[in-house]
């Protein structure tokens, strides 16, 4: 399973990259705003900075919601860097645009996906990634992980190559459960990745090994 970090914070991206397990980055307009990155020029420059830190795919989201606007913006974003994946919302014009980008060899991430039907449409249109938001479904008492399982089954039934990018991952158990189900990618905060490190028996065991080493030296 690929690990993406879901942030526009450069320090956190560097930290995840330094750990050696990072495969890419996802951002969205809210994550950009959280870092104080506003205005088209600043946002574009920020994408370039992210691409310089990581070696994998970097999702850059279009703001336009009409077909022509999505195409124009997506083509501009794709030209920024070969690691850029154009992130397109799951709306009618978005699906049409994903098909256009797919035909042109431009990679896409279909975002704001909350149902198996939407995921099926994204795959039919040729999306590179589909992003079901599991945390936001959990927030409204709907099983986000079940959606990942449904999409996995549908994609496997027909051999769709669209990669399931479990998004809106909130914690370490989401990561483990997504891995069990067979999500291709997960994107979450740095804490969801670093949480995988933790086990009290590791800490206790290491303390004992070091103490015993000191006794003999
Ligand atoms: C996906 O690409 C989104 O950026 C993200 O995962 C949304 O997560 P949230 O529900 O925690 O905002």
What does this structure look like?
The protein has helices at about 10-20, 30-35, 40-55, 65-80, 90-105, 115-125, 135-140, 145-160, 170-180, 190-195, 200-215; strands at about 1-5, 25, 55-60, 85-90, 110-115, 130, 165, 185-190. It has about 220 residues and is α/β, with parallel strands linked by helices. Strands 1-2-3-4-5-6-7-8 form an 8-stranded parallel barrel, surrounded by 7 helices. Strand 4 (about 85-90), helix 5 and strand 5 form a beta-alpha-beta unit. Bound molecules: erythose-4-phosphate. Erythose-4-phosphate binds next to helix 7.
Please name the defining characteristics of this protein.
8 strands, alpha/beta, 217 residues, binds erythose-4-phosphate, single chain, 8-stranded parallel barrel, globular
Ligand species? erythose-4-phosphate
Beta-strand residue percentage: 15-25%
Our count of helices gives 11
Shape: globular
- Count every beta strand, where a strand is a DSSP E run of 2 or more residues: 8
- Arrangement of strands in the largest sheet: 1-2-3-4-5-6-7-8
Distance between the termini: 42 Å
Overall pLDDT:
97
SSE topology string: EHEHHEHEHEHEHHEHEHH
- Unreliable spans are none
Rg, Cα atoms, Å: 19 Å
The description of the largest β-sheet is: 8 strands, parallel, barrel
| Oligomeric assembly | single chain
Structural class based on helices, strands and sheet pairing: alpha/beta
How much helical structure, as a percent, in the residues? 40-55%
């Amino acid at each position: 399973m690929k690990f993406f970090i879901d942030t526009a914070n450069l320090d956190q991206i560097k930290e995840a990259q330094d750990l050696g397990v990072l495969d890419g980055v996802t951002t969205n307009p809210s994550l950009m705003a959280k870092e104080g990155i506003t205005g088209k020029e600043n946002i574009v420059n920020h994408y370039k900075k992210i691409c310089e830190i990581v070696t994998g795919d970097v999702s850059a989201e279009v703001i336009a919601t009409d077909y022509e606007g999505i195409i124009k913006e997506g083509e501009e974003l794709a030209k920024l860097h070969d690691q850029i994946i154009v992130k397109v919302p799951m709306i009618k014009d978005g699906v049409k645009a994903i098909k256009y980008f797919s035909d042109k060899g431009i990679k896409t991430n279909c975002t704001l996906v909350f149902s198996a039907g939407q995921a099926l449409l994204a795959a039919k249109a040729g999306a590179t990634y589909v992003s079901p938001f599991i945390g936001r479904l959990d927030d409204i008492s709907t099983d986000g992980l079940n959606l990942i399982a449904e999409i996995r089954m549908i994609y496997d039934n027909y051999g769709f190559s669209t990669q399931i990018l479990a998004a809106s991952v909130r914690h370490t158990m989401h990561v483990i459960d997504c891995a069990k189900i067979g999500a291709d990618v997960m994107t979450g905060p740095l804490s969801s990745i670093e949480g995988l490190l933790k086990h009290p028996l590791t800490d206790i065991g290491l303390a004992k090994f070091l103490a015993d080493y000191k006794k003999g030296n």
